[in-house]
Amino acid sequence: MHAVTYITRHRRWPARLGWGGEGLYSRFRWHRERSLPLVRRVLLVHPRLPEAFDGLTVAQVSDVHAGQFMTPDRLEKVRALVCRLAPDMIVFTGDQLDRRPVDAELFVQAFAGLSAPLGVYGILGNHDYLAGRELAVAALEAAGITPLVNEAALVQRRGASLLLAGVDDLDAPRPFGPDFSVLQTDNGFFKLLLCHQPRLWPEAIRHGADLTLSGHTHGGQISPIGERFSVARLATRFVAGAYVSGSHLLYVSRGVGVGAVPLRVGTLPEVDLITLHRGQPAASL
Ligand SMILES: [Fe+2]
What we know:
Blueprint: E1 2-7, H1 18-28, E2 38-46, E3 56-61, H2 72-85, E4 89-93, H3 103-111, E5 120-123, H4 126-131, H5 133-142, E6 146-147, E7 151-157, E8 160-166, E9 191-194, H6 201-206, E10 211-214, E11 241-245, E12 248-252, E13 270-278
Parallel strand pairs: 2-13, 3-4, 4-5, 5-6, 8-9, 9-10, 10-12
Antiparallel strand pairs: 1-2, 3-13, 7-8, 11-12
Helix pairs in contact: 2-3, 3-5
The structure holds fe (ii) ion (FE2).
InterPro entries: Calcineurin-like_PHP, Metallo-depent_PP-like, Metallophosphoesterase_sf
GO molecular function: metal ion binding; UDP-2,3-diacylglucosamine hydrolase activity
Keywords: Hydrolase, Metal-binding
């Protein structure tokens, strides 16, 4: 398995500061949520990907947190950014809503009618439950996004299929919660899983997920000395970026919004454009 990530859009002035200045800028600039998310282009290579899906592009939009810190104009800019990427498929990997019921309205107004040739799908995150499970699912549906909450869909391209599944959030109150049996299938499909919290990746692997897309961590959100040393590390070692385990891949988005406090330090908001390729196992990261 092979994974490469790089950012394609920088603001201009930090580059003029030189390497050291840019590093300081990136680590210590406060309240950067006012800026647009970056586009992080991610290349993931997996030998089991059907040839028909070689080159598939997936825009991952995670942790939007529509709410008091994610205003309508910023949401509109995120939507425009996603549209410009023109991906084959769009996935929302949880925390679409920050916490208030009214946040559902913000989300729907911003993303209603968003489309992609192979569909737009979404799962729930822990913050969606703060606004309410039913409301959060209804918000996805009202925006025209197919909810995959312990559900799976067959995505077809050029005569081949892959299994796209989504699980409920780990912190959902019982009787809700993640049900990995949605990955069960006897027909050898490539399995792409949407799972909000990356610490469930070992469970996803046990159930055969070839590629798992997660969010939740916000890249640590406040990581003044690097993502590896953020508080998110207390909950999971999968904080941001791509991870490889045997024949399984995980990608953890740093997400668009913020939770709890309107502050990011050392980790930029991002929308991810993931390109999938079929290929032989290559060097790990
Ligand atoms: Fe979040």
